[in-house]
Structures are given as structure tokens and as C-alpha cells.
Amino acid sequence: MSKLKVGVIGAGSISELHMGSYKNNPNVDMYAVCDLNEQRAKKLAEKYGFSKVYTNIADMMADTELEAVSVCTWNNTHADLAIAALNSGKHVLVEKPLSTTVEEALRVEEAVRRTGKMVQVGFVRRYGSNTQMLKQFIDNGDFGEIYYAKASCLRRLGNPGGWFADKSRSGGGPLIDLGVHMIDVCWYLMGRPKVKSISGNTYYKLGNRSNVKHLNFYKAADYDASKNTVEDLANAVIRFENGASLMVDVSFTLHAKQNEISAKLYGDKGGCEIEPELAIITEKYDTILNVTPQVNSLGLNVNEAFQNQINHFVDCCLTGKTPISPVEDGVEIMKMLCGIYESAEQGKEIYF
Question: By C-alpha distance, which of 218, 215, 96 is closest to 159?
Fold first, then answer.
């Protein structure tokens, strides 16, 4: 099998999870990295063994030897960069979210159909070993009909600032940054049902709370406490055409005792939890059982999930397989995210 010549667009923090995973894959040729900051691009090219460095995206796209790219840039550039790569004959792994609007997402989907090239959306939690294990249980009917799920990712203090807090670049706050993962992993395990309606709320009460002392939190490279145009908290109830429902809440900042992450699914024969730790709940001989699988890690192993995601992308590029997070799913998730923002803005439930 010939090696896949890959490039990475954007040399920010998330890019290193892509680069490190590509480097670990024996079927990859570390071909090119592109960033507006040439010094940063050269530093990572040297660290991970990329042959070429670009500072102009048009020059990178014109390189006919390059076969596939990861898009690791600001959210508001994802769609345009993905389309440019598709138009130049390259396969694309685009970081979540696929875009910042449904219209942009549909343009990417159209470009996939028109060019015959592939887009894999970076819903990395799908690629965690625990997610795939639970999906096997679900697909084999062990939990019966999954009719309800609930997910939370609450930070008490965790607005990263920088582009994350600039709605013009990010498209939103914790909903589009954290909620995209929580909604997707539940929706994926629920069988990807079609959305029927959404009732959502967003709150702008606390800002980034840069005044808080004695508690550290992740800050973007371009952190600026004076700039913040995204929500602190978002919550929603999503109803699906098959009668199932999903409840979600996410925050960058909240007067909470501690950070909290959870994802739980409930079926008519059993249930499961994937966050904060893997658990299976079932019933046998009129007795309810809490089952703890014997696995390497009960929580999400981020590095393993990224490696699995990259390996899957490379395999799909080389063999023509369809990815487990295709562009169509990126479009559906954008409908949900934008639907929550729209419902919150209008103050009413919206229907699809």
C-alpha cells in the first residue's frame, strides 16, 4: 500500500494531536503544514517531520502531490477551507464543528458530492474505544430501544478567551465548543435519529470572570479578557422523529461547586454511561445489575481516540471506505447547534 501524503492546515494547539497521530501511522507521508505564522509552522514541521511549510493556503492547495488534509483552524474558516481542499482534489478531515452555519455545512456536503472526495468530521469521541464498545452492545439490542439521553459538560471557570470567546470566529461559546461533542456522542449512540424539534436557552450573565483568583483554567494563545461575545451557558431539549429525546447543558463559566461531565443513555432493556466513567446497567432474573466492564480505561483516552480517528481517516482515504463520521452527520449536528441558538434567540421551540 502506498503512503498517503497528508498536510495539516493550522498549527494551533489542536493540530499537534493530529500531527502526532499521523506520525504514528506507518501509511502516512508527513508532507506539508500550513499556518499564517511561518515560525510556528516551521517549528512544528521540524518537530513532526513535515517536508514542506506553507504560509499561503492557495499555494498549498495547488500542490498536486498533497492527497489529504486536516483542517485545524478557527471555526469560521472550516467550511471554506474544506471546500477549497475538495476542489483541489484532496480528502479532508475537518475539526468539529463542520462550519458555523447550516448553509455553510450544506455547501461542504455539495462539494463532497460534486468532487467525489471524502470529508470526515472530527467527532473524536465516536472513535474512543469505550464508545465503540457500547455501540456494539446497542447495535445488538442489549439495551433495547434507546429513548432518552442526557449529557452535561459544565465548567465553573473555563472560558478560554481568544478566538474561542469571539463569536465572529468561533460561531458560539460552550455549545459549539463543548456541546458539539456531548450532543454528537449521544446522538451517534442513539442511532442518529432525525431531529423533530428543539427548545434551547442561552445565558450571558458572568462573562469570562477574569477577576477570579486562585483557580487556574485553560487560556487560548491570544487570550484577552476584554473580549468576550459568547454565551456562558446553554441548555436544550432535542426531540427526535422516533420519539426519543436528548437533554444537554454546557457552560464555560457557572457558579458550580466543581466541573462536571456526564453522558448517559437509557433504553427499555438497559442503560449505559460513557462519562465520567463507563458503566452498563441491566436487568437479569428480576434483579437490576450495575456492570463495570474490564477495560484499559473507564474514561475517555483522548490520545487513543485521536489516534483511532486519524487511523480511520487514513484507511478511508486509501481504500475508499465511508467514514463513521461523514459530512452528512456534520450537517445534522450543525442543524442541532444552530437550532438551539435559534430557539434561544426567539424564545420558543422550533420545528424541523
Answer: 218
Neighbour-count burial of 176, counting CB atoms closer than 10 A to its CB (0-12 exposed, 13-18 middle, 19+ buried): buried
CB burial string 326-345: b at 16+ within 10 A, e below: bbebbbbbbbbbbbbbebbe
Measured in residues, the chain has a length of: 352
Per-residue pLDDT of the chain (352 residues; tens, 9 = 90+): 689 999 999 999 999 999 999 999 999 999 999 999 999 999 999 999 999 999 999 999 999 999 999 999 999 999 999 999 999 999 999 999 999 999 999 999 999 999 999 999 999 999 999 999 999 999 999 999 999 999 999 999 999 999 999 999 999 999 999 999 999 999 999 999 999 999 999 999 999 999 999 999 999 988 998 899 999 999 999 999 999 999 999 999 999 999 999 999 999 999 999 999 999 999 999 999 999 999 999 999 999 999 999 999 999 999 999 999 999 999 999 999 999 999 999 999 999 9
In the numeric block, which cell numbers belong to residue 93?
Answer: 478531515
What is the C-alpha separation between 272 and 158, in angstroms, rounded?
Answer: 28
Region of 286 (left: φ > 0; alpha: ψ -120 to 50; beta: rest) is: left
What is residue 171's DSSP assignment?
S
Question: Is the model's pTM score more than 0.85?
Answer: yes
Give whole-number Cα distances, 174 to 58, 76, 292, in Å.
32, 15, 31
